[in-house]
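Form 12-C: Joint structure prediction
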Amino acid sequence: MTEAAAPAVVELRRADIGYEGRPVVAGLDLRIDAGEVIGLLGPNGSGKSTLVRGLLGLAPILGGSVSLFGVDRHRFKDWARVGYVPQRQTVVGGIPSTVREVVASGQLTSVRPFRRPRAAERAAVVDAIEAVGLADKAKAAMATLSGGQQRRVLIARALASAPDLLVLDEPTAGVDSANQVALAATLAGLAERGTTILLITHELGPAEPLVTRTLVLRAGRLVHDGPASEAPDEHDDDWHHHHGDHPDPGPALGLEGPCT
Amino acid sequence: MEIEVLQYAFMRRALLAALLIGLTAPSVGVYLVQRRLALIGDGLGHVALTGVAVGLVTSTTPVLTALAAAVVGAVVVELIRVKGRTSGDVALAVLFYGGIAGGVVIVSQAPPGTTVNLDAYLFGAITTTTAGDLRVFAVLSLVVLAVTLGLGRYLFAVSNDEEYALASGLPVLRLNLLLAVVTSVTVVVSMRVVGLLLISALMVIPIATAQLVTRSFRSTVVLATLLGTAAAVSGVGASYYADTPSGGTIVLIAIAAFLVVAVGAALRDHLRRSTPTPDADA
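Section 2 - Result
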């Protein structure tokens, strides 16, 4: 595959991304190709979230260029190809809603207004819920789910539009190890199907075997970009933050599909 | 069988207006409650009072001037909400109290001989809905329901997680403005029978009641609409027999229903906890 033949899934050229005119991420060059599974690491405030928010149109691009699937982000329209799992926990609103309702809200760019969803669209919602191993909870109220299960619902919501690029911001923060293992299994299934994954995290945990490339940001600049095996040793450096003990890596991942 | 209240044309109009309120107010209110903006309808009612006053002073139909004021107020509120996060509530307070103060002051300038029953505008009355009002309300209600039913999935997505909706490429600002405008339209539909100070109650209380016993968004909307319609129609009827202001009567009925369901839900939860494990102390 040559660069000319297939546009990069994500391409940043000397990109500055920030807020109110002040770049948090400065002069970043980065290319992510189809099928890569990227672990994006770095301490709090290093610009990890700002970087992905810039990709998603949630943070302004102050300089340079950012493109998705070969199209400049400002002109990019095909948002169904991008799935986003935010870090924030906002799934429980003021009104009861079921897992299925929240997941269905992830496919709106493909569903037309003033029309009932088609059978294929409803099936995509069911598939997305199955992919995160919550089929038995589809009709349950969000408020009755654990934090880890709610996080998996957010991943299903991102999957409902069958994205080619999945961006996850700290999906495992505050999630117990059983749910981390379930989540890694979901990601393994997606990676197998060729979905490009950009995973922001403090610790790769059970997802570590999937990651094909590790990026480390510090103070808005890329300080490491290489194969996962060459990631800096966690305990050598100050970018590493503990959230309790290191989770048990869990069983071998990849082929057994989602588990709960 | 003759039903006494239906013999009078004004009562038939009031009951039809109540039906429209019962259908529209909860269907808009559900998105307001979901975004924790439950009191926005109240504020827009305040702003609409200035519109009513302008209508009375200039001898224009108050329903239309109230609609204009409420729509402008709604757009301003939404733009304030988008712009400044910290000073937002202060700006809203200025707008709301400005709305009611402007209304009271402008009404005082009405030409001599104009009889102004401000109470009817503030708290609702069954005798004030004209045939012309009812036609306007019917059209406005259709607009409201077209938006809340036709674009419900989008409004749900934006209300449930605005940032995610933005990242999904939805036109979030336009949807928010649309919801704000539809809220102000609902305020105007409700102004005759429920009154400008009590409108918000029918956007919020039936929702609060329904969500005590529902677990999905859709069932919350359906049940709240039934509850809202029942409260509005029975409130207008009770107002006729008891000779009470209709808005207050409707709201008290809605609150009574909320209390009954809340007690019922608490009892149900208590029984559920204690029956399957008889030895448990809780």
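Section 3 - Comments
The two ends of chain B are 52 Å apart (CA to CA). Chain B has one domain: 4-274.
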